[in-house]
Specification:
Elements (H helix, E strand, L loop, with lengths): L5 E6 L3 E6 L6 E9 L2 E2 L2 E2 L6 E4 L3 E6 L3 E6 L4 E5 L4 H21 L5 E5 L6 H14 L5 E4 L12 E6 L16 E4 L9 H20 L2 H6 L1 E4 L7 H12 L4 E5 L2 H10 L5 E5 L10 H17 L8 E6 L5 E4 L22 E4 L8 E6 L13 E11 L4 E6 L10 E7 L5
Parallel strand pairs: 10-14, 10-15, 11-14, 15-16, 18-23
Antiparallel strand pairs: 1-8, 2-7, 2-9, 3-6, 3-8, 4-5, 4-7, 11-12, 12-13, 17-22, 18-19, 20-21, 20-23, 21-22
Helix pairs in contact: 1-2, 3-5
The chain binds adenosine-5'-triphosphate.
Adenosine-5'-triphosphate binds next to strand 7 and helix 2.
Length: 420
C-alpha cells in the first residue's frame, strides 16, 4: 500500500466519498474546503478538521457538491455516484408527514423499525433518519435492540435515548441519561426469553414516557435491530414489532424477510423494502469483536473527550452479584405452576471467584433481588479487573469513585481486558 498523505476530492451533487482507516494507530483528518457535505446525516462544518481512527468506515455525502480534503493514510478512498440517499430522504419525508399529522391530530408520531441481515447498513440508516428528524426540530427516540453491535451503552444491553441534537461526527449520539436494560450476551439467541422480556419492558417504559412528553411522542421512535433474521431471529423481530406497536418497518436488502413481514404483519403496518448502500462494509467476526471491545473501552475511557475511571478494591462480602437464568429443566421437573422458560429469567446468586476476572457487571437501579430486577434499568457498568481469593477482594474499574452502590450487580458474559 502506497502512503498517501494528502488527497483532495471534488464531489458532484448527489455523490459520496467513501473511505476506510485500517492500519493500526492511524489517524485520518477530514476537512470540507468548499460547498456543503454531511456524514450519515450530520452536517459537516466547513474548514473544521474531523479525526477518524483505525476501524472507521465513512461516507461523506453531498446534495449540492463540495470539495473535501483527507490527510493521513486511508486503506480505500473513492467517490461513488450511485447511492440510495434519495430513497432514504424520501423515507424521511414520509415520516415527517406522519409527524405533522400526529401534531395536528394529537396522536403519536411514527414508530419505525429498521431490519435486515448483518452488514446492510441498519445502524447507519437509523442514524441518518434520526439526524434528519432532529435537524427538522424534532426530538425522536432512538431505540437500539442490537445487543451485539448496538450504539447505546455497552454490548450485551438494549437501550433508548431521546435525541436532542444531531450525532457528533466523531462520537455519535450524546449518551446522556440513556435508558438501558441488561441482557448480558452478544446474541438474543443466548436467552430468547430474557431478550423478549426486556424488549417488552423497554417498549412499555417508552410508551409511558411518551405520554408525558408530547414533543417526543409526535416525533416518533426509530428502532435499530440485530442482523439475525431467520428462524428464532425472525420471531424476535416480530415480537419487537408487536411490543413497540410499530407503524413502519424498513427492510434493508432482503426480499425474503420483506415478504415474510408483509405476510405476517397486520395491514396497518407499512412494510417498505429499501436498497442497501454499496458502501456498507462487511465486517469479519474478529472486526465485530474489536468493535465490541472498543465500545466498552469508550464507556470507561471516553472517545474524543477522555474520561478518568476509578479503580478500587471491594470485599467479596460487600457484593450482591447475580446472573440471569438458571439451568433449564424439563417442565416435568419444575415446581407446580412454573414453566421451564421461567427459569431463564430467574436470578441466580453468584459467589465471587477468579472466573469473574475481566467480566462486566451491570449496576442495577433495583433495591434488592426481589425488586423486579429485570424490569429496572441500569445505572451503569463496572469491570472486574482482578480477583484476589486470598484477601477475598475484587478490583473494580468504575466510572464513579468508591463506594460501589450497595445494589444488585448483574453478571454479563462480556469481557474487557483493561490494559489502558
Ligand atoms: P450490524 O449487522 O452489525 O448491525 P448494520 O447492518 O447495522 O450492521 P452498519 O453498522 O450501519 O451496518 O454499517 C456497517 C459499516 O459500514 C459501518 O462501519 C458503517 O460506518 C459503514 N458504512 C455504512 N454506510 C456506508 C457508506 N455509504 N460508505 C462507507 N461506509 C459505510
Amino acid at each position: 500500500m502506497t502512503e498517501v498523505q494528502l488527497q483532495e476530492f471534488k464531489l458532484e451533487p448527489d455523490s459520496e466519498l467513501r473511505f476506510e482507516v485500517e492500519s493500526k494507530n492511524e489517524k485520518v483528518v477530514l476537512e470540507v474546503k468548499s460547498g456543503y457535505a454531511e456524514l450519515f446525516g450530520t452536517e459537516l462544518v466547513k474548514g473544521k478538521p474531523y479525526e477518524f481512527h483505525t476501524g472507521a468506515k465513512v461516507a461523506v455525502f453531498t446534495w449540492h457538491g463540495c470539495t473535501v480534503e483527507l490527510r493521513g493514510r486511508t486503506e480505500v478512498s473513492y467517490i461513488a455516484k450511485e447511492t440510495p440517499m434519495v430513497v432514504y430522504l424520501n423515507v424521511h419525508a414520509a415520516l415527517e408527514q406522519q409527524r405533522v399529522a400526529a401534531e395536528q391530530e394529537n396522536t403519536r408520531g411514527p414508530v419505525t423499525m429498521v431490519v435486515g441481515p448483518g452488514d446492510v447498513g441498519k445502524s447507519t440508516l437509523t442514524r441518518i433518519l434520526l439526524n434528519y428528524a432532529v435537524r427538522m426540530g424534532r426530538r425522536p427516540i432512538f431505540v437500539d435492540l442490537d445487543v451485539g453491535q448496538g450504539h447505546i451503552s455497552v454490548p450485551g444491553t438494549i437501550g433508548a435515548l431521546l435525541v436532542e441534537r444531531p450525532a457528533s461526527i466523531e462520537e455519535g449520539f450524546s449518551q446522556q441519561a440513556p435508558l438501558v436494560y441488561h441482557f448480558g450476551h452478544k446474541s438474543p439467541g443466548d436467552n430468547l426469553e430474557l431478550y423478549n422480556t426486556i424488549v417488552s419492558r423497554l417498549a412499555e417504559v417508552i410508551a409511558e414516557r411518551c405520554e408525558n412528553n408530547k414533543k417526543a411522542s409526535t416525533s416518533g421512535v426509530i428502532i435499530n435491530t440485530c442482523g439475525w433474521v431467520k428462524g428464532a431471529g425472525y420471531k424476535v423481530l416480530t415480537h419487537a414489532a408487536q411490543a413497540f406497536e410499530v407503524d413502519v418497518i424498513l427492510v434493508l436488502d432482503n426480499e425474503r424477510l420483506y415478504n415474510e413481514l408483509k405476510r405476517d404483519m397486520p395491514k396497518f403496518v407499512k412494510v417498505v423494502y429499501l436498497p442497501k448502500s454499496g458502501g456498507v462494509v462487511e465486517r469479519s467476526s474478529a472486526q465485530r469483536a474489536e468493535a465490541r471491545d472498543a465500545r466498552i473501552r469508550e464507556y470507561f475511557y471516553g472517545k474524543r473527550t477522555p474520561y478518568y475511571p476509578h479503580s478500587f478494591d471491594v470485599k467479596f462480602s460487600d457484593l450482591k452479584i447475580y446472573k440471569v437464568g438458571a439451568p433449564s429443566l424439563p417442565d416435568s421437573c419444575m415446581p407446580l405452576g412454573m414453566r421451564a422458560e421461567d427459569a431463564l429469567t430467574k436470578l441466580v446468586s453468584v459467589w465471587p471467584a477468579p472466573a469473574l476476572a475481566h467480566r462486566l457487571l451491570a449496576v442495577s437501579f433495583a433495591a434488592g433481588p426481589d425488586d423486579h430486577v429485570l424490569h429496572c434499568n441500569l445505572a451503569g457498568f463496572v469491570c472486574v479487573t482482578a480477583v484476589d481469593p486470598e484477601r477475598q477482594t475484587l478490583t473494580i474499574l468504575s466510572p464513579q469513585p468508591r463506594p460501589l452502590p450497595a445494589t444488585v450487580l448483574l453478571l454479563s458474559e462480556l469481557q474487557y481486558m483493561d490494559n489502558h
